[in-house]
């Protein structure tokens, strides 16, 4: 990786701050939607070599509900929500006002509720980032897949490896109704966008 | 007579939620659309009193939420459109209002916020 692309400690600090503000707003939005308490752990911000991505996400055979949103506009990147089936059902049933055991994961309304939740949480996160930077950030429509972590890793590898051999990884963990969620919120901003963000926010390397 | 509302959102869940909130308050849901193109077509067909419009939706014939607002305003310069979107960034709010939207609600919302906005734009 050339020097220009390197991320310094002060950059990392800024990313942590963005993660904290964004996750705070996202948690507030989620709490409002679910009408219950939502806590967030302090976001973990790391720069990781691509080949180590698998160590962070755990067992490649674990199955998750993977919700994926493309970020575009003045900042580009990708956001993934990973929810284990159990947690996805808890969130879905809370949104729909149903019992968790009555949830059918193939149900169109259940899937729509999950996607809309991700849309709103992403919106809150990106609105915070936009407020901080003054940049306009657009994002697409969430897509939902139920897949193994290994498949997601392959996808990430192909996406990110085109631009970089490292990934910026902002991970947030949620606690909903006092239950520690196993899911993750992952934000992979692309390197070009990060440079723009650092410039706008006045952080030198 | 109850005001007639056209709900535009790509998410079935959100259309259902908005319809429930508005029906409880005595509004009639005259139609639903899940993309901007469908919204424009249904506006011409149904002539609703008010439209709730999402911004981020699958683009059909290059029409997203804000473009749909512009198209509808061309059909009916008196159209009353309220944006209901998770994207609440300043530039987008300005763009939507300039396109002709009468109000902008950021998701998640309190049901009362939607009801008040719609009552206000239809002049109830």
Task: Describe this protein's structure.
The complex is a heterodimer of chains A (205) and B (124). Helix content of chain A is 45%, strand content 26%. Chain A has 205 residues and is α+β, with helices and mostly antiparallel strands. In chain A, strands 2, 3, 4, 5, 6, 7 and 10 form a 7-stranded antiparallel beta sheet that branches. In chain A, strands 1-8-9 form a 3-stranded antiparallel beta sheet, with helices on one face. In chain A, α3 (85-96) crosses α4. The longest helix of chain A has 26 residues, at 9-34. Chain A is globular. The two termini of chain A are 15 Å apart. Chain B is α/β, with parallel strands linked by helices and 124 residues long. Chain B has 5 helices and 5 strands. Chain B has a 5-stranded parallel beta sheet, with helices on both faces. Chain B starts with a strand and ends with a helix. The relative contact order of chain B is 0.18. The interface between A and B is medium-sized, with 26 and 21 residues.
CATH T-level topology of chain B: Rossmann fold
Instruction: State the low-pLDDT regions of chain A, or none.
Output: 1-5
Quaternary state of the chains: heterodimer
Please, how many helices of chain A?
6
Structural class by sheet pairing and helices of chain B: alpha/beta
Strand/helix succession of chain A: HEEHEEHHEEHEEEEH
Helix content of chain B: 40-55%
The mean pLDDT of chain B is 94
CATH class of chain A: Alpha Beta
CATH topology of chain A: Chemotaxis protein chec
Short synopsis of the structure:
Chain A has 205 residues and is an alpha+beta fold.
Describe this protein with a few key phrases:
heterodimer; A: 205 residues; alpha+beta; Chemotaxis protein chec; seven-stranded antiparallel β-sheet; 6 helices; B: 124 residues; alpha/beta; Rossmann fold; 46% helix
How are the elements arranged and paired?
The complex is a heterodimer of chains A (205) and B (124).
Chain A: H1 9-34, E1 38-40, E2 44-49, H2 53-57, E3 63-73, E4 77-83, H3 85-96, H4 108-133, E5 137-139, E6 143-148, H5 149-161, E7 166-172, E8 174-176, E9 179-180, E10 184-189, H6 191-200
Antiparallel strand pairs in A: 1-8, 2-7, 3-4, 3-5, 3-6, 4-10, 7-10, 8-9
Chain B: E1 4-8, H1 12-24, E2 28-33, H2 36-46, E3 50-53, H3 65-75, E4 81-85, H4 90-99, E5 103-106, H5 111-122
Parallel strand pairs in B: 1-2, 1-3, 3-4, 4-5
């Amino acid at each position: 990786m050339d020097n220009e692309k390197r991320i310094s400690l002060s950059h990392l600090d800024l990313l942590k701050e963005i993660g904290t503000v964004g996750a705070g707003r996202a948690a507030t939005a989620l709490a409002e939607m679910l009408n219950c308490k939502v806590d967030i752990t302090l976001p973990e911000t790391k720069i990781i070599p691509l080949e180590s991505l698998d160590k962070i996400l755990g067992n490649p055979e674990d199955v998750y509900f993977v919700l994926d949103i493309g970020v575009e506009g003045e900042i580009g990147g990708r956001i993934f929500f990973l929810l284990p089936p159990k947690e996805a059902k808890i969130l879905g049933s809370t949104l729909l006002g149903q019992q968790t055991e009555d949830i059918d994961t193939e149900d169109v309304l259940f899937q729509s509720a999950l996607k809309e939740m991700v849309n709103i949480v992403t919106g809150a996160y990106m609105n915070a980032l936009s407020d901080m930077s003054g940049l306009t950030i657009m994002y697409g429509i969430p897509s939902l897949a139920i897949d193994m972590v290994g498949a997601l890793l392959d996808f990430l590898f192909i996406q990110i490896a085109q631009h970089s051999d490292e990934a910026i990884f902002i991970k947030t963990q949620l606690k909903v109704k006092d239950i520690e969620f196993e899911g993750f919120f992952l934000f992979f901003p692309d390197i070009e966008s990060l440079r723009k963000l650092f410039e706008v926010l006045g952080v030198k390397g | 007579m109850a005001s007639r509302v056209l709900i535009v959102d790509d998410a079935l869940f959100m259309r259902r939620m908005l319809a429930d909130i508005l029906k409880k308050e005595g509004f009639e849901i005259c139609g639903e659309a899940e993309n901007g193109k469908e919204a424009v077509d249904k506006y011409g067909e149904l002539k609703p009193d008010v439209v709730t419009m999402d911004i981020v939706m699958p683009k059909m014939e290059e029409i997203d939420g804000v473009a749909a607002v512009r198209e509808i305003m061309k059909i009916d310069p008196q159209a009353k459109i309220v944006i209901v979107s998770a994207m609440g960034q300043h530039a987008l709010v300005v763009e939507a209002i300039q396109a002709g939207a009468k109000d902008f609600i950021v998701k998640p919302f309190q049901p009362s916020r939607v009801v008040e906005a719609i009552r206000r734009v239809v002049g109830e």
